[in-house]
Amino acid sequence: MNADNLQRALYDALTGNAPLMALITGVYADVQQPDLPESDSNFPYVVIGQDNLSPFDTKTDNGASALCQLDIWSRQNNLIEVKEIAGAIYDLLQKGSLNITGADHVLTRIESQTFSKDPDGQTKRGMVMARVVYDEIT
Predict the structure, then answer these.
(1) What is the β-pairing status of strands 124-136 and 103-117?
(2) Beta strands at 27-28 and 45-55: parallel, antiparallel or unpaired
(3) Nearest C-alpha neighbor of 98 from the set 89, 90, 108, 111
(4) Is 59 helix (H, G, I), strand (E, B) or coil?
(5) Separation of alpha carbons 43 and 71, rounded Å
């Protein structure tokens, strides 16, 4: 179902967007734990998280409907920074176009945004769930 190319397309879209990149230090698939966990130097950043793909086939094409999790991590004193970053992701992806190798992008919709404080008392988290529908080129 082309999950690897979907992740690459999300990464390219996020890192290629100047307004978003001005707000964060980077976009990652996995983040290395710093030598000093209490260090704030890597924040804020976005992690392309888990995906849930379901077949979305037509009579002529195979495709997928993917629910993609994007996690935003911050160490600001409040949730404003993660909400601002989530807004930039919304502006980029909602009704935007993704360039998925081997597939035709049909649509992207932001299904939800959740904001919370991490149990460590310092870290703030934003979770953006984006629905991506695409047809694979056969």
Answers:
(1) antiparallel
(2) parallel
(3) 108
(4) coil
(5) 12
Distance in angstroms (rounded) separating the CA atoms of residues 64 and 53:
6
Tens digits of residue pLDDT in 12-35: 999 999 999 999 999 999 877 666
Tell me the pTM.
0.91
Question: Which stretches within the chain are classed as H helix?
Answer: 3-15, 18-21, 80-93
Given a contact cutoff of 8 angstroms between Cβ atoms, the answer to whether 124 and 117 are in contact is yes
Whole-angstrom distance, CA of residue 100 vs CA of residue 138: 14
- Residue appearing with tokens 């945004």: 113
Alpha carbon 96 to its chain centroid, in Å, reads 13
